[in-house]
């Protein structure tokens, strides 16, 4: 799994962006890809791990979990 930091998450819209630690392009994260988080919400600046996939010509984070 890759790791990164949540740059911005919009709980009212159900999506946000993750900045990867490896310096690659930002990934979009959707609420239904967040596991082990109350109400499927992430906090800005939160450290996460995820699997990166491509959906509709953009990189998306799936199986997103908070890193302690």
UniProtKB/TrEMBL annotation:
UniProt-annotated location(s): Cytoplasm
Is the Cell membrane keyword given for this protein? no
The family database entries (SUPFAM superfamilies) matched by this protein are listed as:
Nucleic acid-binding proteins (SSF50249)
In terms of one coarse class, where is the protein primarily found? cytoplasm
Residue intervals of the CSD domain? 1-66
The alphabetized UniProt keywords are: Cytoplasm
Keyword Cytoplasm annotated: yes
Name the UniProt record assigns to this protein: CSD domain-containing protein
